[in-house]
Sequence to fold (592 residues):
Amino acid sequence: MLFDRMAILGVGLIGGSLALALRTKRACRSIIGFGRSRDRLQKAVALGVIDEFSLDVGRAVRGADIVVLATPLNTTEKLFEAMRTALKDGVILTDVGSAKGSVVEAAHKTLDHLLSRFVPGHPIAGTEKSGVEAAFAGLFEAHRVILTPLPETAVHAVEMVRKMWEITGAEVVQLSVEHHDEILAATSHLPHLLAYALVDCLAGLRDRDEIFEFAAGGFADFTRIASSSPQMWHDICLSNRDQVLNALNKFDTQLRMIRTAIENNDSTSLLNVFTRAKDARDRFAGRRRRRNGAVE
Amino acid sequence: MLFDRMAILGVGLIGGSLALALRTKRACRSIIGFGRSRDRLQKAVALGVIDEFSLDVGRAVRGADIVVLATPLNTTEKLFEAMRTALKDGVILTDVGSAKGSVVEAAHKTLDHLLSRFVPGHPIAGTEKSGVEAAFAGLFEAHRVILTPLPETAVHAVEMVRKMWEITGAEVVQLSVEHHDEILAATSHLPHLLAYALVDCLAGLRDRDEIFEFAAGGFADFTRIASSSPQMWHDICLSNRDQVLNALNKFDTQLRMIRTAIENNDSTSLLNVFTRAKDARDRFAGRRRRRNGAVE
Fold:
């Protein structure tokens, strides 16, 4: 038993899947959920995801050995503030936010001496679905979890959070906060922006219904992430604003180069870009297959 | 038996899958392949995709009731020119090109009185794989095939090509050449460009190997089409140049708007775009599910 009592703030896809994974492996004696909606928390209890819940964050974290924030990014500071005096000695705090800079900033503003108990984290897993109904115990298997411990973070706290994620089947790695945010802006935040932009662009054309009628499998794959939660991605884009804008600039330069090549019938440049991209994508797919043992 | 003798020029993913589908349904007595590589054509015979082959286009089309061009877009004019005198009376000509304007232009330059026999076509199907090894009989099932007949095209020829595609399980619709090229630029050519641009952009960053290590399922889906044939997409982009540039311009305007919203912390605009896009994507996925009877 890794923890006696765990509090999960935000019992959605990620929080719910973590709870299910830890219960499956009997890593926690009891899990309490916190959220804003009584209905959804009752559903989480009914689905066997959590044991009990509270709509009061102070009550939810009381007596917990570990508190996991799986709530929207822009609620972090408020929640840290609200829970601070209710936390027990030796508690471990962690989160699952897709942008780490803003979370760490919130921690610095609010946690004081508890900063050493905080292990910022981010599981690189998810689907375009959200909500506790979409949660499943295997979500993190063979996926990466990035921890971005602060200089102040206690080594013991990092090790406990690492163990927790390893129990779910994830591979845990450590990065600096800045490096995490730069990498995720490029590989996750930017692609989501592009997918949203493309679908909204097509939805704005005059023949929009007809246009979607003629879209094929490639389009379905390409735009799947545009079915993700608008609120969550709004929060991520604004939380990781500088790195997202930086990634957008680099992409824009690349796209401009391709546009110029098309305008000038510049076969060589166009073929070079496409060939480099295909090679990189094929290498990525190959590594992914080997790691997941799955057919792509 | 729909056709006695068919010639397929270019026995790759599309040409090979069409041959397999028609053989499975016994719609053709014999199929001859044409291509540039003896090795690949021998493989196509060995795989049971075609009965025989020729490296000479004139010999390949001789005696054929229908000739299907499934060759690169930029070879169309040369092939029409080379086959013209070898075609039998009453032959039907069709193609599978992803851009129709340039194919029709090539037909106008070369086909003369045979223009009435030509039915430009485009099956909206494919995978990121290419080559005859990737071909399979079910590729077109429940997919759309767009025919863009010319004012000169004989009604009988259109009906025969329609029947051919319906035998493969496809749903056949008709559009004008211009409308086809505009729609496909938006739903297919532009997404491919964006996927290539994104992957090449990431591959150019200093931490490129590490960056791909942290890419997750969303990235894999988004960039799958960047594994498509660089030569083929080069040809498509240049063949459908005006419409592709037009689609790129519209996308650029959309992306600029999103960028401005992020720069200004403009929550309302950002949420509006993401919500509209998610709604459109969810509607598209719902229609697709109903049409394919498949789980997305």
